[in-house]
TrEMBL record:
Taxonomic lineage of the native organism: Bacteria, Pseudomonadati, Pseudomonadota, Alphaproteobacteria, Hyphomicrobiales
SMART domains membership: AAA (SM00382)
UniProt KW keywords: ATP-binding, Nucleotide-binding, Transport
KW Nucleotide-binding (keyword) present: yes
Main location: membrane
Signal peptide residues on this chain, from the entry's feature table: none
ABC transporter domain: residues covered: 4-236
Subcellular location field: Cell inner membrane
Topology of this chain in the membrane: Peripheral membrane protein
Protein name in UniProt: ABC transporter ATP-binding protein
The UniProt record lists the keyword Zinc: no
Family label: Belongs to the ABC transporter superfamily.
Organism, scientific name: Ciceribacter sichuanensis
GO molecular function: ATP binding
Length: 331
């Protein structure tokens, strides 16, 4: 496995700048998740690293080697797309074996069998090994595509929302499996997702992309607790961070335009009165929807709370984040 370095990478599509001077180091053995809304440049970043597309400016290094001019095969990267890409006329087993049968690798038969079996078990498709790829459900095909990447030992795995087409239970299972495969093998993984839970649970680092610019890079915890802007703060956390006018509570510093309060950073029982508008019991926690001076706030409370819609609850900020008129964090 290898470190991947992007140095001032820029990519334009006619006059649209999809990646704008992006510099980023994906450390060897890390699990980096790229975050950003649609169009932020996540897929473009993966395509540049894979060699499917060329940057207009800047350099990409994998394992210290410059990648300019090298084909995807020469880069030895494994990519999993959101949409499965299988050989339809081959069986699941043949699809999984395919990458190992490359003449360059000359993997021994016993080794191929062992790897295919192990991966098929992890991905819960062992019972479908002899089926034709076309005889699978969408979720099964996607698992085979993931398997085709995992049987290899590339320099880096590039995955673009690989779990988004799977049902919730399988997604939760595979999240744990992928993370343990990565942690166990020391693989380097660059991963795109819109799923907050995937990002928080799997990433060693997250990179926040905003209109083609990398605006923050750090551990999920760092980005969660110390976001550089409202934009970065809104990328992690569910329910989302509450953004309110800064003067809605006393104590805002000069130049503060907005206060950001994570749902769990609102103390209840003292402070200002707010109205409970909805109580959502989710089992392990309860969400309170509050109306406070014409603003809606979401906070969390005790799972067995007796609060009901129409009640009054006192609230005050705990660990507030302040942002200026441009949405940038104030120290
Ligand atoms: N082949 C292309 N031709 C023209 N424009 C493109 C092309 N590929 C991407 N773009 C543009 O570049 C920008 C970044 O696209 P990209 O696919 O990287 O976004 P993304 O963050 O992956 O979004 P999504 O979450 O929707 O996949 C977008 O504005 C997109 O329209």
């Amino acid at each position: 496995m290898a470190e991947v370095v992007l140095q001032n990478v820029t990519k334009r599509f006619s006059d649209h700048v999809a990646l704008d001077d992006v510099s980023m180091t994906v450390p060897d053995g890390s699990f980096v998740v790229l975050l950003g809304p649609t169009g932020a440049g996540k897929t473009t970043t993966l395509r540049m690293i894979s060699g499917l597309d060329q940057p207009d400016g800047g350099e990409i290094f994998i394992g210290g080697m410059p990648m300019r001019g090298l084909t995807p095969a020469q880069r030895n990267v494994a990519m999993v797309f959101q949409q499965y890409s299988l050989y339809p006329h081959l069986t699941v087993r043949e699809n999984l074996e395919f990458p190992l049968k490359s003449p360059l690798l000359s993997t021994p038969r016993a080794e191929i069998d062992r790897k295919v079996k192990a991966i098929a078990e992890v991905l819960q498709i062992a019972h479908k090994l002899e089926n034709k790829a076309t005889a699978l459900s969408g979720g099964e095909m996607q698992r085979v595509s993931i398997g085709r990447a995992l049987v290899r030992s590339p320099q880096i795995y590039l995955m673009d929302e690989p779990l988004s087409s799977l049902d919730a239970k399988l997604r939760a299972d595979l999240r744990i499996e992928l993370k343990s495969i990565q942690a166990g093998s020391g693989a380097t993984l660059l991963y795109v997702t819109h799923d907050q839970i995937e990002a928080m649970t799997m990433a060693t680092h997250v990179g926040v992309l905003q209109q083609g610019r990398l605006v923050q890079f750090g551990s999920p915890r760092e980005v969660y607790e110390n976001p550089v802007s409202i934009y970065a703060a809104a990328r992690l956390g569910l329910p989302r961070i509450n953004i309110l006018p800064a003067d809605i509570f006393a104590g805002a510093p000069p130049r503060a335009r907005n206060i950001g309060l994570r749902p769990e950073h609102i103390r209840q029982g003292s402070g200002e009165e707010s109205l409970v508008t909805r109580v959502e019991h989710l089992g392990d926690q309860t969400r309170l929807h509050l109306s406070f001076r014409n603003h809606q706030i979401v906070t969390v409370t005790d799972a067995h709370t007796a609060l009901r819609s129409g009640d009054i609850v006192k609230i005050e900020p705990n660990k507030p984040l302040y942002f200026d008129a441009e949405g940038m964090r104030l120290a």
